Amino acid sequence: MEKKWSQLIRKAGYNDFQSPFLREILDTLPFSLFIADLDQRVLFVNQTLLSKIPPGDYIGHSCKKLYGENCDTMLCAYRQLQKGHTTCLFNLKGKTRKVQSTYLYDCHHEPWGYCEIITDPNEIDAAEHILKSIVNGAPEGVFRICYDDVFTVLYANGTFSHLHHFNPEDSDFLNLTTHLHPQDFKQLRSEISKAIQRKDLTVTFEARIQCTDGLVHWFNYSCGIDYSNPSPIISGFEIDITAQKDLEAKLRLSEKQLKIAFAQTNDTIWNYDIHTHTIKQSRFSIRQFGGPEIMRNVPEGQIESGFVHPDSAETYRQLHQKIISGNRKSEATVRLRHQDGNYEWERIKYRVILDHSGNPIKAIGISKNISAEMRAKSQAQLDALTQLYNRAFFEERVTAYLCDHPNTQRHSQAALLMIDLDDFKSANDSYGHAFGDEVLRVISQRLRSCFRYNDLIARMGGDEFAIFLPDLPSEDFAHKRALEVCKTLQMPLYGVTPHYREYQPSCSLGIAFFPEHGTLFSDLYQNADTAQYNAKRTGKNKYAIYGVEMSSESSSSANWMNKEWLMDELDELVYISNITNYDLIYLNRAGRKLTGIGNIDYTGKKCYEIMRGRKSPCPHCNNHQLNPEKFISWRNFNPHLDKSFIMKAKLVPWDGVLSRMEYALDTDIDPEISKQMEKHR
């Protein structure tokens, strides 16, 4: 019996000894057994041998530790193995012991270790009985088959007979070919034949068996090949994998149906791995969006690369954050860059896949191109001439905001601005509707330049416009926007039409604040319109706030407009800042162009942040040296703007507050003027 086990173990590879089932069998054998590598380091000791030697940690140590006082005798057995002798008899403590040694080979027929089985000849019969009990009780089928014409079954345990629904007493039990599925027999014989020709020690295969219950079952076989007989003997284990095969077939069918379904649509599908923050694109997705099959660092990588439109960046980020936070599903509509470089609207829906413990591991994303739908929706929302929001959609959006912010305790949380062009009707009647339409388009473009991306701008009809400013940082913000509108709209219409010299545009503007002047759209609209009428009645080209006396407000707004208008016409950089908290109050057009910021981007930011790129006040700041009587001048190199300037600064009253005015002349623009200024510092 130990010879059979020696042959079986010899055919097993290193990985086979990691099998819990095989190690359990070796542990229950009645004879002593250990396995070592070629450097005589112990890899495995079965429980029978461990029970006969002193307790200790033997794994990874030299076999000499395992041999103990029998070291010389056992080393002699290993030397015999090296000479080709596999069996030796020794007298250990007055008892005869047989040591069976065998090399262990890998799939390339290279020895990777050896096994020694130590037995008492008198215990062989008892061991044979125990071994049969173990094998018959194994959950896998155990068998020995002769590689002949009919695959004669030499041995089969009870599990093998049960799995095949065989009766060992039937005459055809020994003939395995009568049970093999016809389509598998030729392929199986071919695979085993090739393995034998290569002198492989192991072979694995799958086959279908026609069982006596009338059903076809799938089995997986893991076998060793014994070449010591005229006909090779195949010994091994089998496992019924019918349920697994059925599941695989259902998955393939489901996959095929899904592919057919997706082929009929423009939808794309991808796999989002929550733990690695990667997206695996399908082939159709790659054709649609381009890029690599694996997208990494999701979502930030796609935002930084421009795959996601900047306006959709935060929405795309929140889409994935919901999944990471534990939501089972997440949806969003964003603009993504397609293979042709154009951005298209995509509606993305994620559904989460959980592991066996209920933890999210992946999410399946389905993206649908809805650009046509969005264009149709946009056309229903926009004014055809100006491409601003139309009146109906503007009222809907403003009403939705007001409903989401009921009973607010904060003053001036939002503002509604009503704008009416001054003297537009007479100009339109005089120069024609084509002229009027072109003016309205130009005015619309100028309005866009004055406001934030989330402000709502609409053409209410004719030459009347409305702007809704949500989430105001302060009431002063609305004042500044109103001034900016008045100043921007009154710029000449150079080259717009042949009659640009005859018509000087301007506007009258009214402001109503939410919630002070109303909590309903109708109230805010009526009150802002009333304020706008007051501005037009008291002189035009100005703005008014609902409920505020027009005389003082009109004067104040005119002063503001005149100062800003004049400084915007200068080629030199001019800015105004608060001398206490360094807030940047005003930056003229030349300064906005030089620093690369928009009309309103500097609101609430620090002068040292915008002008110097610093996070704290400049160490050489001379606010304490300034006075309202005269300018202080000096030469300065600005590393943030990479330019040299002649600087002049003084204190000036601005909107009732003493502020710093700084004037900067770029020395590279006009060296001669620079020299003259330097001379008269």
From TrEMBL:
According to the UniProt entry, the coiled-coil residues are none
- Tell me the protein's name: PAS domain S-box-containing protein/diguanylate cyclase (GGDEF) domain-containing protein
Q: Which Pfam families match?
A: GGDEF, PAS_3, PAS_9
Domain (PAC) spans 330-382
PANTHER family noted in UniProt:
BIOFILM ARCHITECTURE MAINTENANCE PROTEIN MBAA, DIGUANYLATE CYCLASE DGCP
Q: Where is the GGDEF domain?
A: 412-548
What CDD domains is this protein classified in? GGDEF (cd01949), PAS (cd00130)
Domain of life of the native organism: Bacteria
Lineage at the top is: Bacteria, Bacillati, Bacillota, Clostridia, Eubacteriales
Residue intervals of the PAS domain? 127-199
InterPro entries, sorted: Biofilm_reg_signaling, GGDEF_dom, Nucleotide_cyclase, PAS, PAS-assoc_C, PAS-like_dom_sf, PAS_fold_3, Rev_trsase/Diguanyl_cyclase
